[in-house]
Design goal:
hydrolase, signal, 8 helices, alpha+beta, three-stranded mixed beta sheet, nuclease activity, about 270 residues
């Protein structure tokens, strides 16, 4: 990594029980907001955002992360082989929803291949695969061709049924639930897109909402569930390394919600 982070991240849950006439209900787990963090980028990259909240913070972050180098869609293939490399096997990549380690050489469109999954579904705002949101590495991940098709352009929510190579992910008629280990990753990618693309650079103004029927509108849901996932699954070493690689080797911009998880609650 470029710099050592000093993280004071904590996670706690409040255990609530309610008495009823015949006994006690099952305890309910409630996630608490991420504690403030400090990074090596606060006095440089994030200096104009530190200390702000709400729309002021969102606006500052938008200005900061919009200064990026853009890739072509064909260049994304090789970039993903680096950003999503299996830490235990340098010949493979880790597939996002499946959790499968698959050979880097198996990129393509056939059964058994992996392809480029747009976590913010490209039809939500109809930006396709053109240079810009369609090629932004911060929300593009390797995924099995068939699993990618099953996810389609569904919004994210809890619930559904398993499927082949699901890795624990679930789906139903109008939503998709990723496996537990990457729920937070998905949330932070969606929220990054909502800050990066604000409608001021010829692309749609992307925003999260609480719907699971967004279709081609430039919205993605469900925000309430994504916030829960963000709290339950804080940034991992894999996710932090990925953020660094994108910043240092490709786009020269960062996902601020990986560096500062508490900024999710500060904005939404």
């Amino acid at each position: 990594m470029l710099a050592t982070r000093i993280r004071r991240r904590w996670k706690s849950v409040a255990l609530t029980t309610a008495a009823v006439l015949v006994g006690l209900t099952t305890p309910t787990l409630t996630a608490t907001p991420a504690a403030a963090t400090t990074t090596a980028y606060d006095s440089t990259y994030y200096k104009n955002a530190v200390g702000k909240t709400g729309t002021s913070l969102k606006s500052s972050l938008h200005t900061i992360i919009s200064n990026q180098t853009k890739l072509s869609y064909s260049a994304v293939w090789n970039a993903l082989k680096v950003t999503d490399q299996d830490p235990n096997n340098s010949n493979n990549v880790i597939l996002l929803y499946s959790g499968i380690s698959r050979s880097k050489s198996l990129n393509g469109g056939d059964v058994g291949d992996w392809n480029r999954e747009h976590v913010w579904a490209k039809s939500h705002g109809d930006f396709g695969t053109s240079t810009g949101p369609g090629t932004d590495l911060h929300h593009l991940r390797p995924e099995d061709v068939q699993v990618n098709s099953i996810r389609g352009n569904k919004d994210f929510d809890n619930g559904g049924s398993s499927f082949t190579n699901s890795g624990g992910s679930l789906t139903d008629s109008n939503s998709f639930e990723p496996r537990d280990a990457v729920k937070g990753d998905v949330a932070r990618m969606i929220l990054y897109m909502a800050v990066r693309y604000e409608g001021d650079d010829s692309w749609p103004d992307l925003e999260p909402n609480d719907s699971t029927t967004n279709g081609s509108a430039p919205y993605h849901g469900r925000l309430s569930v994504l916030k829960q996932w963000h709290e339950q699954d804080p940034p991992s070493t894999f996710e932090e390394r990925r953020n660094d690689v994108i910043y240092n080797s490709y786009q020269r911009n960062r996902n601020p919600f990986i560096d500062h998880p508490e900024w999710v609650e500060a904005i939404w």
